[in-house]
Amino acid sequence: MAVRSPAEMTSTSWREEMSSDNVKGLVLALSSSFFIGASFIVKKKGLKKAGASGIRAGVGGYSYLYEPLWWVGMITMIVGEIANFAAYAFAPALLVTPLGALSIIISAALAHIILRERLHIFGVLGCVLCVVGSTTIVLHAPQEREIHSVTEVWELAMDPAFLMYAALVITAALILIFYFIPQYGQTHIMVYIGVCSLVGSLSVMSVKAIGIALKLTLSGMNQLIYPETWVFTVVVIACVLTQMNYLNKALDTFNTAVVSPIYYVMFTSLTIVASVIMFKDWDRQSPTQVITEICGFVTILSGTFLLHKTKDMSDGLSSSMSLRLSKHSEEDGLNGEGIPLRRQESLRSSV
């Protein structure tokens, strides 16, 4: 009987764990991250181009709907989301979800190269903390419970705890939309991103329900006959349209390299909270796993804080630079065109 070497045993174990379905899921998840990361940049370019000839999205305009480049970005994002959805059909969530963090890196890198958007060193550290925290939470997340009918998901959604969460989310989103956005939408990035993330947490729960319904239907148990399936579909459409609207406003108003990671962090955190409440994930976890997830959440908050301070530092640097230039211009006796004021006065007197 031949004895296998440790290297052969490791290779065999890897092949057993990484089945063909897992490899397909990995490729789909990687391609999803690339498409979604790139879509932020393409949409930003489209929003800038549309804003140059019409009313900017950041102030309530919808001229971007007539901009082909924005639609290219939108289609790219849809392709990425479809690839991400398909990845869950082939590979477990613990493999697919952490790879979503790659979209942040791709978006930041493309923003640096294409949009010339600079990110302070502390912003880079904030991105790293966001990715580490999100990955920590996802890697220690519990396995999803088995669902045998879309009506089971509806029963979970009708649980008093989740109904209370949904009510709080809707109330908070409406307060942000009608009170905070008119006053602080142009100056505080968390307002737009808050709406997207809150609504997004509900959309993911509905997307899970639709995914379960489609999976069961394709396996021979038709779920399309249940009205619950179509209720979840309507919720997804309403939530996605809301997310798209306010994400466009955020991208048009703020730095892409800041919007992308903050949106990812808040969206992921609230989605995990919604999943814990709806599917009772923590009931099947040990205290160590729960504490690890809480530590990951604290890491995310730290990264978000650094990203906020980075934006403030960038804005402050730009303001101070303008004041210094203005001050130096006055001290040197220059007008707005760079012509010495004394010389300009002498030219006028000679005329």
From TrEMBL:
Pfam families: Mg_trans_NIPA. Residues 340-351 have a biased composition (Basic and acidic residues). It is a multi-pass membrane protein. It is found in: Cell membrane; Early endosome. This is Probable magnesium transporter. It comes from Quercus lobata. GO terms for cellular component: early endosome; plasma membrane. One of its GO terms (molecular function) is magnesium ion transmembrane transporter activity. Acts as a Mg(2+) transporter. Can also transport other divalent cations such as Fe(2+), Sr(2+), Ba(2+), Mn(2+) and Co(2+) but to a much less extent than Mg(2+). Keywords: Cell membrane, Endosome, Ion transport, Magnesium, Membrane, Transmembrane, Transmembrane helix, Transport. Belongs to the NIPA (TC 2.A.7) family. The chain crosses the membrane at residues 23-42, 69-90, 96-115, 122-142, 162-182, 189-210, 230-247, 254-278, 290-307. It comes from the Eukaryota. Homodimer.
